């Protein structure tokens, strides 16, 4: 099944064309509004940073609002966190919330509002729909679909995670082993363990070293592809599901960092975790299915050179090595 070089080639082209120098380029804004006293709210607004400047986004409400405290801004690496308190002169439920400037970006905004009566509302705003009406309450299905969509979108733009999966497919030539490896990495527990523990703060790792290790893990798998083509053995070649599980734990920290950036609805944390994770897993499985379909199509019209697998491994390894150096440099800036 040396034809799987097409998987790597397609994934590498996707990364290079998109200009994906690092994972998770599309980072959403996050607005949290919590009612602390009657008609008085604490506001947290997190916006992505581009260099030393944050995206020009402003949170606006349609009703009359008074500022109780000034806005306090605190940069946190790749985002700007702003906090303040407001008093509403009209009920917040029934008002329209607008993220002004979102229509001029390529990112989304996640909105979470908690009322004193215990009702929660979570919504995802997009450049095409930068505003929404705040309801009295929200259904469980709405929370699920919001975080499920974020999970799918995150894996769709998580180029390093996709390249790791593609490289793993290049090693696993038997469909039974492929099912085991993919299950270990995506479906069973590898992501779920670290995603849950890191998101809830039970286990924490600095994000920059994690991103470096994710890039290095791709280089290691690419190197094992070359070893396999030379007739050598390694743990990834003999027991790919073990390596997939171990690296899945590491990659799970990367997803957890993204979910923490999104913010979690305090009244629906288990549901948000579950739906985000399901979105990630389905996104990965769709990615695998699309590439395998592409491979089968290409095989009907082309003869695959014998050295294609090694060339593909070098291509993906080179991209991952570039990421490793780039992220190491960012660590020490």
From TrEMBL:
Keywords: Membrane, Signal, Transmembrane, Transmembrane helix. Pfam families: HupE_UreJ_2. The chain crosses the membrane at residues 154-172, 184-203, 209-226, 238-260, 272-295, 307-325. The keyword Ion transport does not apply. The keyword Transmembrane applies. Residues 1-23 form the signal peptide. This is HupE / UreJ protein.
């Amino acid at each position: 099944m040396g034809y799987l070089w097409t998987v790597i080639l397609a994934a590498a082209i996707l990364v290079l064309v998109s200009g994906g120098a690092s994972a998770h380029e599309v980072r959403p804004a996050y607005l949290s509004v919590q009612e602390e006293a009657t008609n008085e709210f604490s506001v947290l607004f997190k916006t992505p940073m581009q260099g030393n400047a944050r995206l020009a986004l402003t949170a606006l409400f349609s009703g009359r609002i008074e500022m109780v405290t000034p806005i306090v801004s605190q940069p946190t690496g790749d985002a700007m966190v702003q906090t303040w308190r407001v008093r509403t002169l009209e009920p917040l439920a029934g008002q329209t919330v607008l993220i002004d400037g979102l229509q001029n970006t390529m990112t989304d905004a996640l909105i979470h509002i908690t009322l004193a009566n215990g009702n929660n509302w979570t919504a995802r705003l997009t450049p095409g729909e930068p505003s929404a009406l705040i309801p009295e309450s929200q259904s469980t299905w709405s929370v699920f679909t919001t975080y499920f969509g974020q999970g799918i979108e995150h894996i769709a733009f998580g180029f390093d995670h996709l390249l790791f999966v593609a490289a793993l497919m290049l090693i696993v030539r038997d469909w039974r082993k492929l099912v085991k490896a993919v299950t270990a990495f995506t479906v069973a527990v590898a992501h779920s363990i670290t995603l849950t523990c890191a998101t809830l703060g039970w286990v924490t790792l600095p994000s920059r070293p994690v991103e470096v290790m994710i890039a290095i893990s791709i280089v290691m798998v690419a190197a094992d592809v070359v070893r396999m083509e030379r007739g050598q053995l390694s743990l990834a070649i003999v027991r790919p599901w073990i390596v997939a599980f171990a690296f899945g734990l590491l990659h799970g920290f990367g997803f957890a960092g993204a979910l923490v950036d999104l913010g979690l609805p305090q009244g629906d944390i288990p549901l948000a975790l579950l739906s985000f994770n399901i979105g990630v897993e389905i996104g990965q499985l769709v990615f695998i299915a699309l590439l395998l379909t592409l491979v089968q199509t290409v095989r009907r019209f082309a003869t695959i050179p014998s050295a294609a697998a090694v060339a593909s491994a070098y291509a993906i390894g080179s991209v991952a090595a570039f990421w490793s150096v780039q992220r190491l440099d960012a660590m020490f800036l």
